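Need residues for this backbone.
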């Protein structure tokens, strides 16, 4: 934790009590109790998957790296896609907690080679520098490249969404073993910040995939002007609404679309004050 105390963080996961969608927030737990962190949302990894906990005492930063698995969201060419079927994903992402307690999600520039990770485990090598609670000591890795452990097991899936057409052949237990290295001194890519992970709008669209009607919910922490834009995949504007002095609190936007084709994509953008969210909507009809 930022104060140096050891603790636990329960990251996002399935399922919510009243709906079969993942939680996006997290819960921080220490010897004094627990705190639900609603100021952070984790989008890229929602089911149990191999993950590495790393702490830098010098920077007072806690990093957790997640490998693939299952998620309600994934990135497509820089656009966050929400799929409420909660598919298998290839995403490798990290969540960083800074010394002031702020948590932010980043997408790594590499992915799993196939749809792997759900139910997998990270097994650290013997002798690797770690704290009593098995968090790895990032500052102790002084070499350019350090082997820290292996990823093993879990589910190997043939497609993102196999849950509704599964006859037993679409997925299998994985027997692959991956070596996991920490590379400190060479730049191999730039992690992409997920700005929505620290945002306050908390946009959720349902159903998604949709057959024509969509409902979007979002939240305003204070009174604000709001712009809502809906465009199709060719950039044609379907709707562009300007709302003035909208009262703070939970908000809802609904739209019915006719004459759409299966596989069509639409893009919803909401701008409120200095904050903006942009999500892709999938149509399945």
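Answer:
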């Amino acid at each position: 934790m930022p104060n140096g105390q050891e603790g636990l963080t329960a990251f996002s996961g399935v399922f919510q009590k009243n709906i079969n969608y993942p939680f996006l927030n997290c819960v921080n737990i220490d010897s004094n109790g627990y705190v639900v962190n609603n100021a952070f949302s984790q989008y890229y990894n929602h089911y149990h998957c191999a993950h590495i906990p790393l702490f830098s005492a010098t920077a007072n930063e806690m990093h957790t790296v997640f490998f693939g698995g299952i998620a309600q969201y994934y990135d497509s060419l820089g656009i966050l896609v929400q799929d409420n079927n909660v598919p298998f994903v290839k995403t490798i992402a990290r969540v960083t907690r800074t010394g002031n307690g702020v948590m932010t999600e980043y997408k790594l520039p590499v992915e799993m080679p196939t749809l792997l990770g759900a139910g997998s485990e990270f097994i650290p090598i013997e002798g690797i520098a770690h704290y009593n609670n098995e968090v790895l000591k990032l500052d102790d890795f002084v070499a350019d490249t350090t082997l820290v452990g292996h990823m093993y097991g879990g589910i190997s899936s043939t497609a993102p969404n196999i849950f509704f057409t599964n006859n037993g052949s679409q997925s299998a237990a994985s027997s692959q073993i991956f070596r996991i290295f920490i590379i400190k001194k060479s730049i191999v890519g730039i992690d992409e910040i997920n700005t929505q992970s620290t945002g306050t709008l908390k946009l959720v669209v349902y159903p998604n995939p949709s057959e024509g009607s969509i409902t979007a919910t979002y939240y305003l922490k204070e009174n604000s002007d709001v712009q809502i834009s809906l465009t199709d995949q060719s950039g044609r504007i379907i709707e562009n609404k300007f709302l003035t002095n909208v009262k703070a609190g939970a908000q809802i936007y609904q739209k019915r679309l006719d004459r759409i084709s299966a596989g069509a994509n639409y893009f919803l953008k909401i701008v409120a004050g200095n904050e903006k969210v942009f999500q892709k909507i999938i149509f399945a009809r």
